[in-house]
């Protein structure tokens, strides 16, 4: 009975939900830090560390809660984002705990502050708050397009967040950079949260204005030059980021915000001229500010030639030389966890300079693998942006992953001596509550967008008049 | 703790980290989504045996012809029917001597989801010599071969477009 054979149809593949893949990867991502914990304990004390079970269970509990929430409320989300973030967070905890064990750092702290408190337990608490933030984002934000309504509110909020550290009495000047505020005994870095809020503003704004920014332009030497009045937004953002640089002394934050705007402008308008202009403006701004702001000047000196000024006793140069030595002694395969001397970096070893510990104890191989972890998160973010069906979601996912990528570049580049060092932290890895919490919220938003993007489209409604046309015979 | 154990752990840890990256990349590889081509002929055949019987019963003389002439395929004869425009674009049906009915009726071989198509719009069948013929079944809006509206059963040249509403089909080798 040969009626219909070999009928071929081209249709959309429904992306499977991939939740079980995520669970398997998550288990892997919990086992790796536990292994690292064991390795550190064996290397330092020669015995299995006492807190290993508690630590492993704690991390597994956090990961499990996050997974169940994703399974329930974002079933089609990307399967890689959560395991990668969990792995980085877990490895950060291990590295912070490892630096807590260092007798040198304990002695330094005793000498400087008269007391020593380990940072790993508080980082564990921050991670728990971060996961709670992630869960909160997924529960409260049922549809990311809601954020579009708050475009101009988020502009105001982000400006307030950025300017908070300058408010007298609230902001605190710590080691030159004014990027912290102190509220009720906690020091908070508002810039980390401003990153997310600003991405919301940029995507809402560019979604509406991108046609004007893309189409009204003149062609000059192969570049589309925008009209003078369309330069307003980029000039405003540039001015704000220069103000941050001058008054808060923080190159990283300023670079992050301006860079994020240029990336989103490029994505929204597909005009290379914005990138060229953005690069020129940031170079001009950085050079201009570096030539008269003392703090920035010191950072640039420490970057240009750390070894000559370190002998003069400049702290920034000494840190830089210690970090470079740390990377150098790691070599290709590293000294092994718990066996390096990265604790010789006396200052901010577990926050700004934590990547030096990775470089020394895991070597080039480890540094590359960590950069790949970050790269995979960024890749999944961009994939989400590609798959998203609405322009706001596209821009938001792109902006968030762009900001994430820029932050990695600024921190890793600064620590490795590619660009002047800034006071930012490696997301998830470094010690610091604001950073961990804000980045978990960022991952939460990306997971929400990817769930919407990968959810199979609803089946088209059956046509109501399907049977109404009848054959009319003459 | 012996030096050897620590070295093994150090290298093992790096290997595990890289293994995670490799697994993650494998997940990305298997995670590509977009469009795909599915074979659905066999499933359809099993699902609707009674309709298959009805369609086969409709033109009895052709069934007899198929049994005698089905084995030899003429040189240059079309082997498949391809939908080249419309909502079903990309659908192909292998031509194996059976009658193909087109229309909005659910038991049609090709179910057209088109406001301009009638329930039983047209049929395509091979004649005694194996030449494929298209015949309009008295549709409201007509069946067009190239530009001409069909009035009688007409032989189909290879590659000539047959238009029904927004759908265009053609026979190919």
Automatic annotation (TrEMBL), chain A:
Domain of life according to the entry: Bacteria
Name of the protein described by the UniProt record: FtsW/RodA/SpoVE family cell cycle protein
Pfam families: FTSW_RODA_SPOVE
Chain segments annotated as transmembrane: 23-44, 50-69, 81-99, 124-141, 150-167, 179-208, 228-245, 251-268, 275-296, 353-374, 395-422, 428-447
Compartmental location: Membrane
Keywords: Cell shape, Membrane, Transmembrane, Transmembrane helix
The UniProt record lists the keyword Signal: no
Organism: Streptomyces bikiniensis
Protein's membrane topology: Multi-pass membrane protein
Keyword Transmembrane: yes
Main localisation: membrane
InterPro entries, per database record: FtsW/RodA (IPR001182)
Automatic annotation (TrEMBL), chain B:
Location of region: Disordered: 38-78
Matching SMART domains: FHA
Residue ranges of domain FHA in the record: 100-150
Domain of life: Bacteria
Alphabetized UniProt keyword annotations: Phosphoprotein
Start-end of Low complexity biased regions: 48-66
A Pfam family: FHA
Protein name: FHA domain-containing protein
Organism annotation: Streptomyces bikiniensis
């Amino acid at each position: 009975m040969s009626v219909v054979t070999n009928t071929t149809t081209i249709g959309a593949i429904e992306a499977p939900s991939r939740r079980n893949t995520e669970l398997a990867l998550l288990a892997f991502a919990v086992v790796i830090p536990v292994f690292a914990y064991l390795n550190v304990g064996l290397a330092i004390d020669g015995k299995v560390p006492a807190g290993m079970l508690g630590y492993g269970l704690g991390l597994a509990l956090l990961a499990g809660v996050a997974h169940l929430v994703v399974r329930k409320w974002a079933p089609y989300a990307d399967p890689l984002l959560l395991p990668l973030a969990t792995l980085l967070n877990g490895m950060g905890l291990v590295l912070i705990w490892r630096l807590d064990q260092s007798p040198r750092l304990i002695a330094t702290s005793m000498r400087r502050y008269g007391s020593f408190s380990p940072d790993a337990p508080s980082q564990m608490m921050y991670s728990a708050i971060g996961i709670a933030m992630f869960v909160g984002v997924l529960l409260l934000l049922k549809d990311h397009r809601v954020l579009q309504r708050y475009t101009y509110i988020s502009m105001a909020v982000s400006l307030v967040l950025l300017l908070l550290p300058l408010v007298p009495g609230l902001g605190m000047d710590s080691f030159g950079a004014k990027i912290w505020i102190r509220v009720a005994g906690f020091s908070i870095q508002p810039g980390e949260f401003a990153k997310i809020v600003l991405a919301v503003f940029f995507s809402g704004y560019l979604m509406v204005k991108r046609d004007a920014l893309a189409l009204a332009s003149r062609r000059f030497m192969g570049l589309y030059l925008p009209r003078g009045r369309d330069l307003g937004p980029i000039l405003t953002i540039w001015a704000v980021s220069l103000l941050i640089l001058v008054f808060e002394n923080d190159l990283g934050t300023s670079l992050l915000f301006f860079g994020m705007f240029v990336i989103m402008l490029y994505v929204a308008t597909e005009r290379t001229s914005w990138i060229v202009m953005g690069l020129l403006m940031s170079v001009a701004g950085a050079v201009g500010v570096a030539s008269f702001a003392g703090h920035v000047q010191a950072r640039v000196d420490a970057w240009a030639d750390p070894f000559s000024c370190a002998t003069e006793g400049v702290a920034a140069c000494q840190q830089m030389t210690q970090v470079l030595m740390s990377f150098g002694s790691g070599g290709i395969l590293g000294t092994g966890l718990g066996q390096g001397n990265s604790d010789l970096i006396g200052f901010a070893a577990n926050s700004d300079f934590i990547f030096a510990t990775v470089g020394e104890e895991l070597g080039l191989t480890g540094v590359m693998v960590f950069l790949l972890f970050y790269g995979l998160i960024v890749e999944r973010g961009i994939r989400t942006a590609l798959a998203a069906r609405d322009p706001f979601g596209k821009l938001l996912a792109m902006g968030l992953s762009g900001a994430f990528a820029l932050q990695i570049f600024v921190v890793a580049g600064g620590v490795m001596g590619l660009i002047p060092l800034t006071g930012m932290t490696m997301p998830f890895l470094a010690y610091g509550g604001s950073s961990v919490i804000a980045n978990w919220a960022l991952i939460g938003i990306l997971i929400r967008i990817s769930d919407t993007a990968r959810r199979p489209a609803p089946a088209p409604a059956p046509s109501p008049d399907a049977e109404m046309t009848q054959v009319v015979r003459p | 703790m012996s030096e050897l154990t620590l070295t093994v752990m150090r290298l093992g840890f790096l290997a595990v980290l890289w293994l995670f990256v490799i697994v993650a990349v494998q997940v990305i590889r298997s995670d590509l989504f977009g469009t795909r081509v599915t074979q659905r002929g066999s499933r359809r055949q099993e699902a609707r045996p009674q309709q298959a019987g009805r369609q086969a019963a409709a033109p009895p003389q052709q069934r007899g012809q198929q049994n005698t002439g089905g084995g030899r395929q003429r040189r240059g004869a079309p082997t498949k029917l391809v939908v080249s425009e419309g909502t079903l674009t990309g659908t192909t049906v292998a031509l194996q001597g059976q009658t193909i009915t087109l229309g909005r009726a659910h038991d049609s071989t090709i179910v057209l989801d088109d406001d301009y198509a009638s329930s039983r719009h047209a049929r395509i069948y091979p004649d005694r010599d194996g030449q494929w013929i298209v015949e309009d079944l008295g549709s409201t809006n007509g069946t067009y071969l190239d530009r001409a509206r069909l009035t009688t059963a007409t032989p189909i040249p290879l590659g000539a477009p047959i238009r029904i509403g927004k759908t265009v089909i053609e026979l190919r080798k």
